[in-house]
Structures are given as structure tokens and as C-alpha cells.
Amino acid sequence: MTAHTPPTPPFRDPRLPFAKRIDDLLSRLTREEKTAFLHQFAPGVERLGIAAFRTGQEALHGVAWMGPATVFPQAVGLGATWNPELVRRVGDAVSKEVRAMRAKDERVGLNVWAPTVNLLRHPLWGRNEEGYSEDPKLTSAIATAYTHGLRGDHPTYWRTAPVLKHWLAHNNETDRSTTSSSVRPRVLHEYDLRAFRETVEAGAVAGVMPAYNLVNGRPNHVSPYLSEHLRAWTDEELLVCSDAGAPSNLVDSEHYFDTHEEATAASLVAGVDSFTDHGTDSSQMTGRLRGALERGLLTEADLDTAVRRQLSARFRLGEFDPEYDPHDATCEFDSPAHRALAQEAAEQAVVLLKNDGVLPLAPDTRIAVVGLLADECKLDWYSGTLLHRSTPLEGLYERFGAERVEFAEGVDRVRLKTSAGAFLHVPVVADAADEVRGAEGALDPALLAGRTDLPPLTTDTTGTELALVDWGEGVLTLRAPDGRYLSVAEDGRVRASADQPGGWIVQETFRLEPHENGHLLKHLGTGRHVCVSADGVKVAEEDPEVFELVVAERGEDAVARAAAAADVVVVVAGNDPHINGRETEDRTTLRLPEHQERLLRAARAANPATVLALVSAYPYAVDPAALPAALWTAHGGQAAGTALARVLAGDVSPAGRLPQTWYADDADLPGLLDYDVIGARQTYLYFEGTPLFPFGHGLSYSSFAYDGLTTRAEDGTLHLSFSVTNTGDVTADEVAQLYTRAVDPSVPRPRRELLGHRRVALAPGATTELSFEVPLTAFAFWDVAQDRWRVEPGAYELMAGASSEDVRLRTTVTLEGEPTLPRPVVAGGLAAAGFDEQSGIEIVDRTKVSGDAVTPAGGATGELVYRDCDFGRGISEVTVEVAGEGTVELSLDGGRALAVLSPSAPASGPYDYVSLGASVAAAGVHDVRLRLRGPLRLAHVGFSG
After folding, report:
1. pTM of the model
2. Kindly report the CA angle at 358 between 355 and 361, in degrees rounded to 5?
3. Which SS3 state, helix, strand or coil, does residue 318 take?
């Protein structure tokens, strides 16, 4: 007898559509197995031959956290290239390295959490480095390119499954898990949703990650927008993965729900499919899911919906068809092509801000390269470990020759003298192994511990000279002569042990606090002061040492010496991505730290031919008036130094463009938590001041002429074309930009708005014709009166040029559109959040499930304006739906109050609404003004009679 071969189950049959295979697999899973699938670390199902699976592999600009990999420029630097084709190739390379690394380390996941499409609305946001641009059109163009590269081009199987971060309206680290972004309907649709929508609609997105914050009073992890908007944009199943720890935040910090079972059920029903919480321990989340099922808060059908979405991603990744997966054998890693691409991306990201002719540098130039970042190749929290490293100093050595390059870092060289007269001493360890943080890879690098194999600091009569850097706001690092930074490990000892500042909680930063005749040295990671004991130097709660800071050399003195002997000085300034502006920490100012200002002043005083090269994750307010040249680049990854040197030498003509406005002063900025880009006149779209450098700005070593802007409207599309000619002497890229503005809008519209762009390479004398096809829907705005998109009839100016302010060509077109109609308030009333203007108002949640209401900020006083409300032949009564206590005053056209409504007794809770009415006589079209006083929520205003 021959053994009977069991039939192949349908979920293993590659001839069947994925949907049928998923149906079959779902039917075979038990409820307990489905429940287990909903944690980030989903276990395998041995009886079905299903492997374990985890969501979440960081890959923002290279494979992160899993050890060495190709490191590309930061995301904001990729945005500065304005080059979707390049960024697609970067995504392609990153996804290939994910596959190659997974073949050797199964901890590497294929569900990549990238890119970040949060708009760079506010330049003080700590995570500015992670986004692409302040503009939704540019952001979606770059994000779409990156996701297509990550996905791969096979029609069926995906190389990786990209998840967009962070849904939604997330631009502050300050109290990020408890603050609410108040986002009016126009800002929601025209700004925050738009970057996500256009990227999802492009078809290479596997899911999204909700952000920690709340939007309009409701946590993003229970947002109705996940179903109302996100999943309405595509027919594909989208996998929604929670951010780390966010499920617990719903109860523990946000106090939005009373129990974790309620919170977990609400998240799952709202659309969260995978819970990232408690690290690799899934027991907490699966226990909450079981409890929600037992209490009837969830059904097994709810589990099926979420598991189906996860399985959809896994099937597309080829997990169940390894013999047909075209990506399974991918092994390209750290290839010559990837190294070249990293350099190309770094070169294309360099933005020339100003040039009075000092650049490019002649081959025989004697150069002083100075500054705190001159010999640094900095990484950020979402970087991989460097396989290759190029600093500006190394790049200039390579390009110009070490004999023509002088270096001065500009650190303050100090000794720390104790009250007993001894000095801090770093023991010399001759055979100490070099260790790079994170080189071994970690699923959670926040758990990586500091080194304890090196001896702690001691004291002696001479001490060790330390390199002190003040990174701003008194935050210091101290570095030993061997290059290691002073750090504190879990045992509380102070050692020279870190290759760089870093970690989730940085253990390499200190602050000198004046005390009596000296200073206390506070370790910022632990909040404790440094003390000296018999068994070494440590941090402790008591007996802090009082130190005298003995300065051997000021950084500016070394800089001045080097600068005076050079033809040209290159000051490399900027930030360390782990200090003062990073995830969990917003910046407080646009100003360059004072230490670096000192170095810049010293260089300029010693040598007027001083070039400023800013290497940073965000804009600075640095006055360039006294400088002959200035450049900016984000931290450029492994080839950053080579790229900068090649641009300075003229081997590459710079063509990066600013992806966000550079403001001249902190006074130009709105509040960090003010998300109303329209009302607060934020970003290049609405800012009415004079920027330091405008959105889209960037100079070249060549020059370009624009000519022949023509337009033609046909079948719902506006066809535009113009030519660009390289009128200079060098081959160079130009980034041609196309903008529009409504000439006479009925509501506030952008001063100008990006419609499209092209980055083109042109030889001297060459001309190219650029054509754009712009759908007429691109001219629409969100009409709050009709609660939908509308193209307003009238004139629209079209502008082509080299930046949002450097306009070379203009023309005007007239669009038919739809006429502006007054609000039909008799039929539908007024949704409180659908205002035209507001002052002192926050949008909050009408219920925990859906809907918006408004309330005065801080329970004080706020005003709302609703323009052109049509009362028809007349009304005689107004009704308001309110909760809480306070008053609502109604007036028309700014006149006296016609009605004052107030609950007779405060409601028992914020969602317990009552309807109040009053007599009001009105007819025709008027502006309605409402004044709210006190901690009162207003959801709706109705008119009748």
C-alpha cells in the first residue's frame, strides 16, 4: 500500500487569488491563534506550518537597528533633493538590503516602518529630520517614490511592505502622548490628510502607523479617520500598526478609557490591526483582547478583520509562496552600486544658500576646515551602523590633499578640578576594544546598556584634558583624548566609554550648574550630580562634588589660528541628532548654539573668506549677510563628507532645494501646538513675512533661463509647458518649480502652492521643454459650507521659477468651477467645527467614537465666525447642542448679541449634550458670530421657524 498524500490546503495553492487563500487560512485558525496574531510579535502556528511574524523594521534612510547597513542621507535630506527618481532608487536599495540581511538574521523584518510623511509644519519639531517637506505635494511625491522602491516592481510579490508614519497631525514631541492637535476641516483635508492620501492612492503602501497624539480631542489610535478616509482611498487591505506603547497610553497617560480592555477593543474596532506594546512579551495585549472578547466588547469577526489585513501583507511578501517569491534570493548588500547611490544622494541633497563668488574653491586653495562637525559623520536614532564613513575633513583631505587642509575642531579644552585640589582623570586602557553602539543589532536599541568593562574615572594631581562642547542651552558633552565620550552606565559610574552620544535616553550629556565658587556637574540622563568617592567617580543623589572649570584653550582661539593661515575657511556647524532636537525632545529656538556662534565669529574675524556649511536636521536662523557663501545639508549618511567636498570643489554643481521655509527669527514662528496653518499663517503657503530663505530656494554654479510658458485646458486637465536653458558654463541640475494662487478667492487661500516640479540635468547651452499635466481638481479647496471639495470659478495665476519666491514666468488662467453659495443653515444648521474663522477655540471630540465639537481653549473665551449663512425667508428660533457649563452668545454681522444660551445645570460628563433654544429673528444672508464662555462644548447650531 502507498501512503496517501494529503491534499494541498487552498491557502497553500498559488493558483488561487490571495483573497480566497486568506479566507481558507482564517477558517483554519482558532480564536486563540487569531488573538495571538494581533501582537507585534505574532507566533508561528506549527500545526499549519506557519512561521512567526513581526511587524516593524525601521528603514527610514537605510536599514536601522539591525547592525551595519548602507546609510543614506536623513529623510529631510532626501526631501531636499527634490528628486523622486533618485529617492525611488534609494528605496529600492534599502529594500534589497532588508532582504539580504533577513537571509542571515531572521530578526530583520519585511514589514518596514517607513517613510514618515508628517509635514514639516514647524521647524522646532524634534523629529524634523524624519519628514520630507512642509508641502504636502512634495512630501507625497518623495514618499510615493520611496514606497515604490521599498515595494519593488513585481506585479504580485512585494520586496518589503511599507507602513507610513505617523497618522495624523503629529509635529510636537512635547507631551506628545497627551496633547491634542486642533485641526479644522480645511487644514485636515487640504494639508494633513493630503500627503497620506496621495501616497496611499499611488498603490505601494501596505499600511500606516497612528501617532501618539490626539487629534481634535480623540487619540489617533481610535480615530474614525482610519475608516472614513484612509481605507476609502484604496481597495487594498491596509495593515494599521500601533506605535510602540501607544495602546497602553490610552489608559495610562491619556486616561481616555477606564480599562485596557475597553481601549484595546476601541482601537481594534477603529482599525488598528497590530498592537506594538510591551516589547516581545505578547501576554499583556493578548490578555486584554481575551478580556474584551469575554466582556462582549469584541467579536471574533473583529479579530478576523484585523488578522485578514495582516495576512494580506504576508501573502504579498511571498511568505506562503517561497518558490515563486522573486525577492527570496536577493543578496545585494553594501554593493558598489549602493555605495555610489549613497554618495549621489548626499551630493544631490546639498543646498547652496548663498554664494558671492567664493565657491567653487580653486584646486590650489589653502583651506581651514573648522567647527564641531568638521570631523564628524553623525547618525540619528533611525540610522543603521556605518559600514563606511566620510567626514567633511576627510572629504577635503581626499579632494584637495592633506597638505592644503588645516583643521581646528573648536572644542574648549578643559580640566575639572575638585574641591580637594585634584583633577578628574581618565584611566588609560591600552587594549580596550572599540565598540560601536548598536553594531550587533537590536530589536529595541533603547534597551542597549552602556559599557561597564572600562574603569571608571578617578582623580589625580594632573588630571585629563577633556574636549568640552556646549550643544546649546547648557547641554554639554565631555570627550577624552582617546575619542570616547564620558558616559554613565547602569552601575552609576562615570567612564570614558561611548563612541558617540546616543541611545533612547542619552547618557553622555551633562550640565554645569553654578554653585558657590564653582560648579556642580549634573548628568542629564539620570538627573543626578557627579560625585567623587574612594572607588571612583559616579553619579549619586547626595554629596555632589563642586568643580572648578580650568580652561586650557578656548575653541575660538584654535579656530582663529587656523583661519588666519588659510585662503578660505569652511566652518562646519550644526547639530548632533541625539541632542537638543530629536524624538521625545523639541527644540526651543532657531538660533545656532552660542558655542558655534563663537566659532563662526572667530573665523570670520580672522578671515573674511569664511564659508558656513550647516550640517543639520533642521533649519537655523543664521544671518548670512557677513558671509560670502553658505550651504546646508542634512546629515548625509556614510558619504556625507565626500559629497560636501565635491560640491565645494565644483565637481558637482549644487542643486538641492530647501524643503521647508527657513524663518529669520523665533518671533516668526507660531506656537508649536498651533496646527492651524491657515489661521496662524504657517509655512510658505500662508506666511506673510520675509523668510531668511524661502521654500524651494537653492543656488547653482550655473545660471538658467526660463521661457515660453503656455497653458491649455482640456478634459478636466490643465496642460502647461515651458523651457529651461542652461545659460552658464558648467553642467548642472536645475529644479524647475510650478506654483499657483487664486487671484481673488472668497476664502483665505495659499499665497502660492506647489503644483509640480522637475529636476533636470543640462549641459551648458542646452534647453529642455518641461510639460505638466495638472488636474483641475488640484485647484480645489475644502468648502466648509458644503463639506466637500470645490473649484472656485475665477482667475488663477500660474508661476514657474527656481523657488517659491524666485518666479521667472507668470500667466493667468480662468477656470469655470462651481459658484460660491451661501450656507444653507435652515436645512442643515451649522456643524460647530465647520467655522470659517476662530479665535481662542479648540476642536474636541463630540463623542469617543466620532464627530467634532468646539470649546474655548482653557475654558476661557473663544469666538467663531461662519460666513454667508442663508436664513432664506426667515427663521425665528436657534438651538444649540452643548455639554458642560458656560454660555453661547449669537450675533449677526458683528452686531449685538441676539441670543444668550446657557445650560441650567452642568452636564454630568463632557459627552452629555443637551439642546437649548432661544428666539431669534433673521432672514437673508448674514455672517453668524458665536462667542463661547467657560468650559462648554458646542457640537451643533440649528435654525428653524
Report:
1. 0.97
2. 120
3. coil
Amino acid at 496: A
Nine-digit cell at 752? 502660492
Asked whether 117 and 165 are in contact (CB, 8 A), the reply is yes
β-pairing, 914-922 vs 510-515, is unpaired
DSSP string over 689-744:
S--SB-TT--B-SS-EEEEEEEEEEETTEEEEEEEEEE-SSS-EEEEEEEEEEESS
pLDDT for the residue 622: 96
Distance (Å) of CA 459 to CA 271, 299, 415, 462, 537: 59, 66, 11, 8, 8
What DSSP line would sit under 244-310, residue for residue? TTHHHHHHHTS--SSSHHHHHHHHHHHT--BB--STT--HHHHHHHHHHHHTTS--HHHHHHHHHHH
> Rounded to whole angstroms, how far apart are CA atoms 768 and 125?
39
Rounded CA separation 357/904 (Å): 73
How is residue 25 written as a grid cell? 487560512
C-alpha angle 81-86-90 in degrees, rounded to nearest 5? 110
Start-to-end Cα distance in the chain:
89
**Can you tell me the distance from the alpha carbon of 350 to that of 613, in angstroms, rounded to the nearest whole number?**
10
Tell me which residue has cell 448674514.
926
Q: Classify burial at 698, counting beta carbons within 10 Å of its beta carbon; exposed 0-12, middle 13-18, buried 19 or more.
A: buried
- The pLDDT, as a whole number, for residue 437 is 65
Three-state secondary structure along 821-888? CCECHHHHCEECCCCCEEECEEEEECCCCCCEEEEEHHHCEEEEEEEEEECCCCEEEEEEEEEECCEE
**So what's the pLDDT on residue 6?**
79
Query: CA–CA separation, 5 vs 735, rounded Å?
Result: 63
- H/E stretch holding 900: strand 897-901
Angstrom distance (rounded) from CA 538 to CA 180: 40
Q: Which residue intervals of 113-171 are DSSP H helices?
A: 136-151
Written as one letter, the residue type at 95 is: S
> Which helix (DSSP H) or strand (DSSP E) does residue 163 occupy?
strand 163-167
Between CA 393 and CA 641 the distance in angstroms is 7
Say if residues 206 and 161 touch (Cβ distance below 8 Å). Answer: yes
Q: How large is the C-alpha radius of gyration of the chain?
A: 30
Taking each helix axis from N to C end, the angle separating 336-348 and 640-649, rounded to the nearest 10 degrees, works out to 50
pLDDT value of position 361: 98
Q: Are strands 405-408 and 841-845 parallel, antiparallel or unpaired?
A: unpaired
The verdict on whether omega for the bond into residue 577 sits within 30 degrees of 0, i.e. cis, is no
What backbone torsions phi and psi does residue 130 show, to the nearest 5 degrees? -85, -20
* CA–CA dist 267, 264 (Å, integer): 5
| CB-CB neighbours of 258 under 10 Å | 9
| CA dist., res. 68 & res. 384, Å (int) | 6
Mean pLDDT per 10-residue segment, the chain (945 residues): 76 97 98 98 98 97 97 98 98 98 96 98 98 98 98 98 98 98 98 98 98 98 98 97 98 98 98 97 98 98 98 98 94 98 98 98 98 98 96 98 98 97 93 69 74 94 98 97 96 96 96 96 98 93 96 98 98 97 97 98 98 98 96 98 98 98 98 97 98 98 98 96 98 98 97 98 98 98 97 98 98 96 96 97 98 96 98 97 97 96 87 96 97 97 95
C-alpha–C-alpha distance, residues 221 and 264, integer Å = 9
